[in-house]
Amino acid sequence: MNKNSYRIIYSKARQMFVAVAENVRSQTKASGQSEASAQSNIDNTESQAFHQLWQVKALVASISLWMPLAPVYAGIVADSAANAANRAVIGAGKNSAGTVVPVVNIQTPKNGISHNIYKQFDVLAEGAVLNNSRQGATTKTVGNVAANPFLATGEARVILNEVNSSAASRFEGNLEVAGQMADVIIANPSGINIKGGGFINANKAIFTTGKPQLNADGSIK
Asked: What is the pTM of this model?
């Protein structure tokens, strides 16, 4: 028998059905044992079973509390399999309505091009921000954003957002460049579904379903 398995029996003492260990017999008395003694043994076993069950529930609750939760701004997710130099860091801000909005600290540019790789890149109705500021900036989408620590050597001229996913990207809100204006490219070979949306503080914007090809110096072919 599995010691962590339970079944339901009726307890006269509690006047209710209770969960007990699977190996506990229903209410019977052994030869020469009084009814009260038999009932006492079962009640003791029930108490132990409840204690074990409580421990199991407490353990499950503890595990649940430590499980990482998907962020509520998970419309944009960096590709953990990409090189560290291509993994943007996604944080969050809030718009004037109090809605959480993704704020992306783009990676260090190479020859002016910041190449960021994602598993998901969806700009939803609340919008998103690409942080291209060395010293912090004020945005229309989320107000003030802090300086991007990846831009110590300079801001990007081009922000390339490459998506590795079997699902198409959604573009439904405004994508704002914080700080220095830049060209923005969104590339997803699985497609891009555009439903409204727009760009703020972007010099040029390109949507493509091709896979970006880069030269050794970081420039786009």
From this structure: 0.68
